[in-house]
Prior knowledge:
Largest sheet: 5 strands, antiparallel
Helix content: 10-25%
CATH class of the largest domain: Mainly Beta
Distance between the termini: 77 Å
Oligomer: single chain
Mean pLDDT: 89
CATH topology of the largest domain: Neuraminidase
Number of domains: 4
CATH architecture of the largest domain: 6 Propeller
Structural class: alpha+beta
Amino acid sequence: xxxxxxxxxxxxxxxxxxxxYASDSKRAIRNFEKAREFFVLQQDEQAEEYLQxxxxxxxSFVEAWFxxxxxxxxxxxPGRAADYYLKGVQADPDTPGYAAGxxxxxxxxxxxxxxxxxxxxxxxxxxxxxxxxxxxELSSTLEKNIDFxxxxxxxxxxxxxxxxxxxxxxxxxxxxxxxSVDEQTIFxxxxxxxxxxxxxxxLKLQEDFYFARKEDGQWVDRxxxxxxxxxxxxxxxxxxxxxxxxxxxxxCNRPNGHGPMCDLxxxxxxDSGKWTDPLNLGNVVNTRYSEKHPSVSADGRILYFTSNRPxxxxxxxxxxxxxxxxxxxxxxxxxxxxxxxxIEQSPFIHPDGRSLYFSSDGWPGLGMGDVFVSRxxxxxxxxxxxxxxxxxxxxxxxxxxxxxxxxxxxxxxxxRREGTDTDIYAFDMPxxxxxxxxxxxxxxxxxxxxxxxxxxxxxxxxxxxxxxxMESVSRPTEGEYFVSLPxxxxxxxxxSMPGYLFYSDHFEMDKVYSKMDPFRKDIPMKPIVxxxxxxxxxxxxxxxxxxxxxxxxxxxxxxxxxxxxxxxxRIEISGHTDNTGSPGxxxxxxxxxxxxxxxxxxxxxxxxxxxxxxxxGEKVPVADNATEExxxxxxxxELKVL
Length: 642
């Protein structure tokens, strides 16, 4: 039922629906009160008929003009509503409640993209000098948005959207794109007639998933994703992991839902290449409120989503949960740095893991909902959101915005061409709102004995901060992996699998490797067999010292994890040097370094009888000491299975 005090909610001092009207005409008042009865019953046509009679009798009947304005708003006719508000306020601009019509007109002009007109009517309102706390807050917010919009339109950003073409876009509604990390596959939501293969239709139009692939730089004919992901209900707002193996999406009112609204689901591609039955993310993530618009990190560990659950800052907020084995942690609200008393939604976390794009009507913007970007710093704090600028953002609502892994190309849906449906477009990202540059790394994890591919866990860790940047699993059978990660950083690369010694390495991602020419790293895994040994490439010491550097902690904890998971394992930690310096000094240094690693493990609770420390000095070189590269390989720490 409509709230009949629609204007009292906006202008608390307006004497509407009392017996004191702006009109003295009994005939006009009788028509108005008859209109009010129909208005309460939501019979707008009859109400409008009597209101028109009222204002014909008395053109200064402010309440009648304002009710006509509200009916026009309900009918999605904002231009007409603004005209009615103006007729009302101009009939009696000296009464506080009536003068507030200028504020409502300013708001409507702003939402319609008429920013200079909005500024003019806001000035008229402010010059009236009538205010209360509610209207003062609205006036202040509106002023910030209008002034921002005028500046933004005067300083447009580069923007030249291009349609993805007939292979993707049709006469139906296409929206909410999401990309594979190599940008060769695009998934999207389509609103159209139900597919007969899904059984009896429940809706005239429903949302389903489609995808298209690139061939020779062009998108080819789209394909229907089909069951079991698509059903005869709505599915939409999908997010795909970087390897394309998992899809997270929104679905509403399913039998296995956790409430009367929307829940988050996921499905994966099994070993046969088919999608599994979608699973509800469970009652830790989903509630009786609405959870929607998932965005999963490139490695599938972190999920951002929109919800109106209790504990938020406004109507809808952005929340975050982390994968913990096969479950998810309690969602955390992203806080005041992102969320406002307004509506924040459609988050997209870039593969760099630090650039979050989202839609908001709570930060200064150009209209119903603009796209912003916020950056995550090394301390875990989000920066003040930055508006992407005009004409990327307009007075219309912008949502479903994604950026490719390279950071230079964005995809979004729009119906900006009047009279058309919603299609998907791409455009070059302005430099100042691009994410951090991302490189690509690919390779194969295999058994060192027989070259058989392995489904192993691999982690990429920022050596400087110790932060886990990427965690994923190589593909079953083939053992292949393909991931993206921020460039310009030193990484520890750890790979582990039950029954095998872990693999460790480190490298400097000092250049940007493209998706077409990725950095390649193949990983041979050695089984836990007596006599097998591995080089601990991420154990670091100060020069000519046995003092462990802080960045060694990542590798030390990997050894600890290996020993905890394999309680029968006994190991030798050995130290090796190059031939610089005297043999005696090198032997002593290598012994102290090995002992320092063992000491760390003992302090963490490992039984000393399982650990042996030995120094070999320069006696067991693996490369020629005549070169710096060779000497660097000889300066190493090893783990051997005893």
